[in-house]
Amino acid sequence: MTGPDGLLLVGHGTRCARGAAEMRSIGDLVAQAAPYLDVEVGFLEITDPPAGVVADRLAARGCRSITVLPLMLLGAGHAKSDVPAVILEARRRWPDVEFRLGSPLGVSREPVELLGEAALSAGGAGLPLLMIARGTSDPDANADAHKASRLLAV
User: Fold this and answer.
1) pTM for the full model?
2) 3-state SS class at 93
3) Residues in a beta bridge with 9
4) pLDDT (tens digit, 9 = 90+) per residue, 6-60?
5) What are the phi and psi torsion angles at 144 (to 5°)?
6) Which residues make Cβ contacts (< 8 Å) with residue 119, sequence separation at least 6?
7) DSSP assignment of 57-86, as one string?
8) Is the peptide bond before 50 cis (omega within 30 degrees of 0)?
9) CA distance 93 to 91
């Protein structure tokens, strides 16, 4: 008998305890919304647990299908290289488990509107906004960062 499907939410990682706690809170919310999934959070760097260790935990608990979802806005190096590397390594360790890669969050109106609302609630109405995006040496990420800037300017 196999266990439930697994969902590994992958964050970048941070030195900020609040940022790591927020990522874990997202995992808790997803687990509550989808009780039929075994949901865990892992990180690529700085913060524990590492995503590969979490993939192993899900497989060891009996998940035979695990979706790995990068919770990153832009599809740059981490989402295009590092998260797929976690999956390739996990597949070598767990050949009987199906590992699937989800897409990064991407830029759409809803999350950008939330970002704009947060800037306004922090007292940013009428002030210039400087948007800085990491990963912008990647052409796709650069285009998405530009798109997000345009949406915020509206």
Assistant:
1) 0.84
2) helix
3) 41, 69
4) 999 999 999 999 999 999 999 999 999 999 999 999 999 999 999 999 999 999 9
5) -65, -40
6) 129, 152
7) HHHHTT-SEEEEEE--SS-SHIIIIIHHHH
8) no
9) 5
